[in-house]
Design brief:
The chain has 12 helices and 14 strands. With about 400 residues, it is an alpha+beta fold.
Length: about 400
């Protein structure tokens, strides 16, 4: 894993120095109380003349949050407001959905989730369980104000650390890890155009899998049973605890028109599955897996191609093929689809200093647990897995 920091080894002393500068142009940084008296017309002629204020979003109409995302190119499926109730109701996690304003103009948003775990401690994260999160803001100043308020919240709730999984760099000097990448494929209205862009060998591999009688069905909630059956086996084989089936059901219930399940079958038996989200003509690949005993068929070749065709034919513009570890087999495979690799930037604030957390499968301290998990019966992993998975961001 390649980890970069902007501060060298002494994280704690650096953060004390940096944190001393937080009382700046952000109108309410490090404060619970927000100034609600700003006129609706203030700063309209010159929005940047008005200080940014950050407050907790408590509007009973969540569509106002999503409306900002609709108009901002940085908005994503993961930033939608419905995830707040999913994380609250399903996992029982406390959430902090921050909104930044100049006057009454929305300038940015930042969703945060607090995970409390006996296993892994207190983690304030944007965002856990999905590929990325972070702030969506109109400018760097607004983004900084949102992050500074997140730091203040992390101190108030006594989090062990704050983790901001940003798809772009921040204009802030915080420790950062860049061990994950997002793979993005640009689509075309005609899937044949995308097909012709593949290398000849790659097209041959796709055709070869079709010859094994592999077919793919796309749908929604009606495919959830098969999806969960296969993904549970796939995650068990990797030593990864699985979420409860109800978690996926809640996502579908919140976003029936923004989610899509794909089931790949051979002889009517599901062998590989995928679960995608959609927002602003962008497909987000959330989860994908295959049955261990069927991996020799390499059904993912057909599964990916059918998902790409489906997205092209429905007029979508980009396909984020999911998150991968840098220089991994997953990244290499996704490059075959002409997907562009872009680093994800995981920023940290750690009040006690120390090294960047290594809460991942490559950490040697989890090797025994992962090996043991792979050998457990499936009924055991689906029974106790959700209790563990809710604490792993």
């Amino acid at each position: 894993m390649t980890v970069a920091t902007s501060i060298g080894m002494d994280v704690k002393s650096y953060q004390r120095s940096w944190f001393a500068h937080l009382h700046g142009s952000c109108g309410n940084m490090l404060s619970h109380t927000m100034d609600k008296m700003t006129s609706a017309t203030e700063g309209l002629s010159n929005p940047h003349s008005t200080p940014v204020r950050v407050e907790t979003f408590d509007d009973p109409r969540p569509d106002r949050w999503d409306a900002f995302l609709d108009e901002h190119p940085g908005g994503s499926f993961y930033h939608l407001h419905g995830w707040q109730s999913i994380n609250q109701s399903h996992f029982g996690h406390e959430t902090f959905y921050l909104i930044a304003k100049r006057g009454e103009l929305t300038q940015g948003v930042l969703p945060l989730v607090l995970l409390r775990s006996r296993l892994f401690g207190r983690i304030l994260c944007s965002l856990p369980f999905v590929n990325y999160g972070g702030a969506v803001a109109v400018d760097a100043e607004t983004e900084r104000c949102l992050i500074e308020e997140a730091i203040a919240i992390s101190q108030r709730v006594r989090a062990d650390y704050l983790e901001v999984r940003s798809p772009h760099t921040l204009a802030m000097d915080l420790p950062v890890a860049r061990h994950k990448v997002s793979m993005t494929l640009h689509l075309d209205a005609d899937p044949e155009t995308v097909w012709k862009g593949f290398a000849s060998k790659h097209r041959t591999n796709i055709r070869r899998v079709y010859k094994h009688g592999v077919v793919v069905q796309a749908g929604g909630a009606e495919l959830l049973g098969e999806f969960y059956q296969v993904i549970s086996e796939a995650w068990r084989s990797m030593g990864t605890p699985i979420y409860h089936r109800r978690y996926f059901q809640e996502i579908i219930s919140h976003y029936p028109n923004r989610t899509r399940i794909f089931v790949c079958r051979q002889e009517n038996r599901p062998i590989a599955v995928a679960f995608n989200g959609e927002f602003n003509k962008v497909v987000e690949g959330l989860w994908l897996g295959s049955r261990p005993e069927a991996r020799h068929l390499q059904a993912s070749y057909v599964l990916y191609w059918e998902m790409i065709k489906d997205a092209c034919e429905r007029g979508l513009s980009r396909f984020h093929l999911g998150r991968s570890t840098t220089e991994s087999g997953g990244e290499s495979f996704k490059r075959k689809w002409n997907a562009e690799s872009r680093p994800l930037h995981w920023y940290y604030y750690m009040p006690q200093g120390g090294h960047i957390p290594q809460l991942n499968v490559n950490n040697p301290k989890y090797r025994l647990a992962i090996s043991t998990w792979r050998r457990l019966p499936l009924w055991v992993t689906t029974l106790i897995g959700p209790w563990i998975a809710r604490s792993i961001p």
